[in-house]
Amino acid sequence: MSGMAVQLQTVTKRYGALHALDAFSLDIREGEILALLGHNGAGKTTAMKLILGLLPADEGTIQVLGHSPTGAAALNQRRRIGYLPENVSFYDNLTGREALAYFADLKGIGRAARESLLAQVGINHAAHRKVKTYSKGMRQRLGLAQALLGSPKLLLLDEPTTGLDPLATRDFYAMLGALRQQGVTIILSSHVLPGVEQCVNRAAIMDHGRLLACGTLDELRQRAQMPLVIQVRGDWAGETPLQALADEGLPLHRVNGHHLELAVPPAAKLDVLRRILAESGVEDIDIATPSLETLYAHFSRQASVETAAEGA
Amino acid sequence: MNAIFIVAGKELRDTLRNRWALAITLIFAMLAIGISYFGAAASGTVGFTSLATTIVSLASLAIFLIPLIALLIAYDSIVGEEEKGTLLLLMAYPLSRSQLLLGKFLGHGLVLALSTAVGFGLSGLLIGVLSHEAGNWALYRAFGFFILSASLLGWVFIAIAYLISASVSEKAHAAGLALLVWFLFVLIFDLALLGVLVVTKGAVGRGLFSYLLLLNPTDVFRLANLAGFHAARAASGLTAIAPTGLLHPGRLSAVLVAWVVVPLGLAVWRFNRRKI
């Protein structure tokens, strides 16, 4: 089907008694960046291995770039896919340039493209050094370079920012943005959520092999119905401002004499804001919407409560 | 470029770079020259003895050494790459598991064949000249066959090492199993056969017995190399009982080839079923 880069339909993968993926369904659109979020063992890496065709699914169907990842065309298909595994490692006795050359040969990529990738990820100055002398961040960059060999249509990045310093992480996300502009579909898993939030189109939250929620940040906020936090600063000279709101049941927290916090349901946002602005003495207002981290915690907590209830 | 050759090229380069190939070549050359020069020391003389004697002595030593070297260079081929994490990455490339294993086999096999050819070959030439047998082409042919069959023996144990490597989940287990295989084929198998022969007081038919020897590739190698040297048969242990019909070098080489193909096929099969 056009428009979809990857489709997983009720896919189940078991390791013995453990359900690594449990009737898991997810569609990934062409040209979008999707984040797979979940704790260790939630099934993120298994999902990536299934998409790559490294593992067969026990049940369900998988389509990647229009083909089955374990079918006859699978090997050739891999020329159009780039993969960066978690904790990527290389042959320590090779230099960075030689390591990349080996993988490039396997994909049939020439020398010029290899060299420009080394420059693109910023390790061309160290390309003559053996990989065993590389820091974690440099290995990660080399890993990214190999994933980008052959201008893939689909990129699978498992914990790509592990070991990168904040600046490198920012550069990395900027590079993902540029790749998206070129129409590359990117699936990434990450534990470091703040950076992810700015670069992804959608996030899929996983728990014990199941999909808890999937959507844009706004859609996830909508679904979670978590309150926004409105912070109000002002000079109220000993009075009790906004008491009317507190009386109506809105949780109001007085940080100090000049600083209030209100937890407001999304639907009441505009109404509450108008009433705050009508108040005298208000000097500043900040609105904090739930971050991806907060949403992730919310859906995960909800899932563990449900699991506990099922078990009881 | 074909994926198999790319993998083979990398293995070849690795082995050359970490000086495995050089070390093996030197060991082979030193063994051949040393055995030839000191081989007759027991009779009170030193000096280059004939190629024929050298081949018989070398064959006995090669049986210990070549399987050990082959197992050493190949035992961690799969499980080692998996532990390191490079296997997962490789398998995401347009490279099938069979291609990876065959490429490794080609690379490792070439290293062993080259080391054998250079190490034994150059020293064989030297021995031939120094022992004044330079014109004896039959001997050179026998030495050539020795080198070929030594390579074949090495390939057998490379294939067995892959089978081990594709079947276990830890590198340490692979190392242990490889040593066990070496003990089994090089030391225990003949002893066990000999034991059976003694206990049954020869009741097991001689024909059946010699076919049992084919179950051990090192015995096949021994038989193949001693076939041409009847004088040596008395000194060649258990293989001395083999009937002459079995001693055709071509037939024995075919058995060695089967000993390469079957474990290699099993290794590919195990590797294809392995969970990564």
Give the SSE map.
The complex is a heterodimer of chains A (312) and B (276).
Chain A (H helix, E strand, L loop, with lengths): L3 E12 L2 E12 L3 E5 L6 H9 L6 E6 L9 H4 L3 E4 L11 H12 L3 H10 L15 H12 L6 E5 L7 H16 L3 E5 L3 H7 L2 E6 L2 E6 L1 H8 L3 E7 L8 H5 L4 E5 L2 E6 L4 H10 L3 E7 L3 H20 L1
Parallel strand pairs in A: 3-7, 3-8, 5-6, 6-7
Antiparallel strand pairs in A: 1-2, 1-4, 8-9, 10-12, 10-13, 11-12
Helix pairs in contact in A: 3-4, 6-7, 8-11
Chain B lengths: L2 H15 L2 H19 L12 H24 L4 H6 L1 H6 L5 H34 L6 H31 L3 H29 L6 H8 L3 H10 L3 H4 L15 H25 L3
Helix pairs in contact in B: 1-6, 2-3, 2-6, 3-6, 3-7, 3-8, 3-10, 6-7, 6-12, 7-8, 7-10, 7-12, 10-12
Summarize the structure.
Chain A is α/β, with parallel strands linked by helices. Chain A has helices at residues 44-52, 74-77, 96-107, 111-120, 136-147, 166-181, 193-199, 217-224, 243-247, 269-278, 292-311; strands spanning 4-15, 18-29, 33-37, 59-64, 81-84, 154-158, 185-189, 202-207, 210-215, 228-234, 252-256, 259-264, 282-288.
Structural class based on helices, strands and sheet pairing of chain B: mainly alpha
Largest interface between protein chains, with number of residues from each side: A-B, 25 and 21 residues
Strand content of chain B: under 5%
β-strand number of chain A: 13
- Percent of residues in helices of chain A: 25-40%
Task: Characterize the overall form of chain B.
Answer: globular
* Separate helix tally of chain A: 11
* Mean pLDDT across every amino acid position of chain A: 89
The computed structural class of chain A is alpha/beta
Distance between the termini of chain B: 26 Å
What's the total count of β strands of chain B?
0
- Are there runs of chain B of 5+ residues with pLDDT below 50, and where? none
Q: What fraction of the residues of chain A are assigned to beta strands by DSSP?
A: 25-35%
Specify the oligomeric state: heterodimer
What's the helix-strand series of chain A?
A: EEEHEHEHHHEHEHEEHEHEEHEH
Count the DSSP helices of chain B.
Answer: 12
